[in-house]
Write a structure and sequence with these properties.
The protein is an alpha/beta fold. It is 56% helix and 8% strand. It has three domains: 56 residues, no CATH class; 186 residues, 3-Layer(aba) Sandwich (Rossmann fold); 71 residues, Helicase, Ruva Protein, domain 3. A six-stranded mixed beta sheet has the order 1-3-4-5-2-6. It is globular and about 75 Å long. The chain binds adenosine-5'-triphosphate (ATP) and magnesium ion. The site of magnesium ion has 4 residues, from helix 7. Adenosine-5'-triphosphate binds next to helix 7 and helix 15.
């Protein structure tokens, strides 16, 4: 067994976020175990330590470092860059969407094998559906799953701040896709993908849309392009055939509501087992975002009032309240 002092140092260094001391103490424990003849356990510890080190180094790449690596300064105001921690398993999705995304991930992880046979991996997605159903989160989770950055393009900024220059900016974004493999999320896509555009110069919107169509058609990069919109009826028809997959995000059904509540509350226990059927009935018609927010509100009030467990009745009330105000 590891010495008491080693365990104390391990906990202390964790508390002080002293990563170097944490890992060196962990290695000392592995060495002690090996000396005591526990070779298998020592080896298991070493593997775990190496894995943890690798995971730490990939998750601590900070967004600033990556955003500085954007080739053009002109894009800094238009693109937000970070490496998401969220994974596809954090989302509740219907089986069909899960299967489509699983194929995309596998093709992306093994893109070199496909390229050798002149095959293109799936990488252009159009996500459509009501607000709060997981479109933005999906783009982030694809990046998180592949351990690459997500570049979120502020389309509204492209249209309003850079009137007259939007096409050249868009070209720069597509150039960046060549040099920086990442997930490029064109969120709120209706601001350029729609004919019925309010507030912007309609001629400019059309020119930007045409330029987008040309660029996405020509694009041969290794990046993943995701466009998301909650106004599918307003999207230009010409857009649809430019994407490899068009995925519809519906509101959650009863089973999915139960799953999302379980995901949000899994770190806490309830005073008495909740009746998920009733909760799902109450929340039917709400989106994932509002259900998640209701759960978080109940969790926060539990923590702040030092209550030991969650109250399912309180959660039901919270859901009703949020549903009545339509998430506002
Ligand atoms: N399918 C889902 N599974 C689990 N949680 C979800 C899901 N969809 C949404 N959420 C929760 O709601 C939040 C907001 O979701 P997200 O931003 O992905 O919605 P969206 O579909 O992009 O909405 P909008 O159309 O308004 O942009 C997420 O951060 C997450 O907490
Ligand atoms: Mg979104």
């Amino acid at each position: 067994m590891a010495a008491a002092d080693q365990i104390k140092t391990l906990i202390q260094s964790f508390g002080e976020s002293d990563e170097t001391r944490f890992f060196s103490t962990a290695m000392q424990i592995a060495a002690t175990e090996a000396r005591q003849g526990h070779a298998t356990f020592a080896q298991e510890l070493k593997v775990l330590i190496e894995k943890a080190k690798k995971e730490r180094s990939s998750s601590t790449i900070d967004s600033k470092a990556i955003s500085l690596s954007l080739p053009k300064r002109e894009l800094h105001e238009l693109i937000e860059v970070f490496v998401p921690r969220v994974k596809l398993n954090d989302l509740v999705l219907d089986e069909k969407i899960k299967a489509t995304l699983a194929i995309l991930i596998e093709e992306q992880q093994r893109w070199e094998e496909l390229k050798k046979h002149s095959l293109d991996p799936t990488r252009k997605l159009l996500l459509i559906g009501p607000p709060g159903t997981g479109k933005t989160m999906t783009a982030q989770a694809i990046a998180g799953q592949l351990d690459i950055a997500v570049y979120i393009i502020r389309l509204d900024g492209l249209m309003s701040k850079y009137l007259g220059e939007s096409i050249s900016k868009l070209r720069l974004i597509f150039d960046t896709m060549q040099s920086h493999r990442a997930v490029y999320l064109f969120d709120e896509f209706d601001s350029i993908g729609s004919h019925r555009n309010q507030g912007h110069d309609i001629g400019e919107v059309k020119r930007v849309l045409n330029s987008f169509l040309i660029n996405i058609e020509k694009d041969r990069s290794n990046s993943i392009i995701v466009a998301a919109s909650n106004l599918p009826e307003s999207l230009d028809m010409a857009l649809f055939r430019r994407f490899d997959e068009i995925i519809n995000y519906p509101l959650p059904d009863k089973l999915q509501i139960k799953q999302v509540i379980q995901k949000c509350t899994k770190a806490y226990s309830f005073i008495k087992r909740p009746n998920y059927e009733t909760l799902a009935e109450t929340a039917l018609g709400m989106n994932y975002s509002d259900i998640t927010k209701s759960c978080n509100e109940v969790i926060k009030s539990m923590v702040l009032s030092h209550a030991p467990k969650l109250d399912a009745d309180l959660l039901a009330d919270m859901l009703k309240k949020r549903k009545a105000t339509d998430g506002k």
